[in-house]
Amino acid sequence: MLNEVRNSLAWWQGDKMQEECGVFGIYAPGMDVAQLTYFGLYALQHRGQESAGIATTDGYGIKFYKNMGLVPEVFNDSVMRHLNGHAAIGHVRYSTTGSSELTNAQPLVFQHSKGMLGLAHNGNLTNASTLRKMLFNNGAIFQSSTDSEVIVNLIARYSQQSLEGAIMKAMIDIEGAYSLVILTAEALYAVRDPYGFRPLCLGRIGDGWVVASESCALNTIGAQMVRDVQPGEIVRLDKNGLSSLKTQPAPKPAHCIFEYIYFARPDSTIDGFHVNRVRREMGRQLAREYKVEADIVIPIPDSGTAAARGYAEEAGIPFEEGLMKNRYIGRTFIQPNQQMRDLGVRLKLNPMREVLAGKRVIMVDDSLVRGTTSKKIVKMLREVGVAEVHLCLSSPPVVTGCHYGIDTSDRKELIAATKSVKEIRREVGADGLYYLSQKGLLKVFGDKGQNFCCACFDRKYPVKIPEGAGKFSLE
What we know:
Elements lengths: L1 H7 L1 H4 L7 E7 L5 H11 L7 E7 L4 E7 L2 H4 L2 H5 L5 E7 L14 E5 L2 E11 L2 H10 L10 H10 L5 H11 L2 E8 L4 E5 L8 E5 L2 E5 L2 H6 L3 E5 L4 E6 L2 E6 L8 E2 L1 H6 L5 E2 L2 E2 H15 L6 E4 L5 H11 L7 E3 L12 H5 L1 H5 E3 L1 H4 L3 E6 L6 H12 L4 E6 L21 H4 L2 H8 L3 E4 L2 H6 L8 E2 L1 H4 L17
Parallel strand pairs: 14-23, 17-20, 20-21, 21-22
Antiparallel strand pairs: 1-4, 1-10, 2-3, 2-4, 5-6, 6-7, 7-8, 8-12, 9-10, 9-11, 12-13, 15-16, 18-19
Helix pairs in contact: 7-8, 11-12
């Protein structure tokens, strides 16, 4: 059923980069940490919809539960009653390495020489295949096809010293992107890779501590954000409060630019930048670069809304909601036959004829991956009588895939990798097609504009990508 559901939404998801994963952790004696983790994962649901899991500790051992599905589908009152303790970690998953199946759901919980340990991971290791072969040849056993289990095995391998020492040694071996939450009977750890590819923030709730992929999860449970976990930092949270270990950071950060363009929730703040404000400024910058004559500006909801508002404000053109989104289709919508599949976009988005007919329209979205959905939307607008359609994108052309935890199409499926702007415009049927320049995109971040990974736009990967990266299996 899960594969049928996923395939039924391929018409929509194929034109977007797919989410990675979301992690959450809390150390708060006296609070219902499982329930708070549940709400935290609910707030991070946009980062992964394949599986969800929670692990808790009462100081003696670790209890956990995970399953395939959305957060409210996985957990019920009976499950939650057994997840008691003073600390917890949680995970929502979208697979970038490893197939979509229960054995790959997280947190991963295992027994090692120092006791039980739970781990949840957001990101992707570029050298996972090489490390897995090395560990396998040295007697390690793998039960999943995730690169996260490589981290687990390395920590266990080095666990004759302190856990902090084991984590630090594992960080020397692994390459790529990782934000981790690690749970033991005594403590909660938060770890971020030396480049800071994936986000991870730290907050307070009462006398307790919280870590999460995004600050929106802190807001949801009533926690106050303190700061971001720094690239290369290991944070330990226990009965004595917070302690921090700093490993060697990269020469400069390489935060994922697509967190701001598309992935993160608009109400999150990541590495000092409020996501909604950044997206609005991207739209403003797009309007400065391209002065298109039009009657109205409309977004492709919801990913293009903030940028569309910014464009309209800067250009002095009225903002309108020209496409109405059906918010009740979601993940459980199943298209039973070809006719329904052909109507897929219409069931997701409905053009408002009264707003659009006879108008020259600027339609704003965050990005263009394959172009298939945009082509269908432009066709719908033509059918309701728009005079012109100009597609404006608040990011540069996506010309190559990501190896740091984002599921992108193969390069041959990326429309900008094989076609010119003129050819893409003809393909989607628009009167105009305008991409925000990379220079303009980074200008939005001021003097911190060089602290981002833009490899999907310029092919400049901060961490070397070995041949076969991302090819990871149990075979």
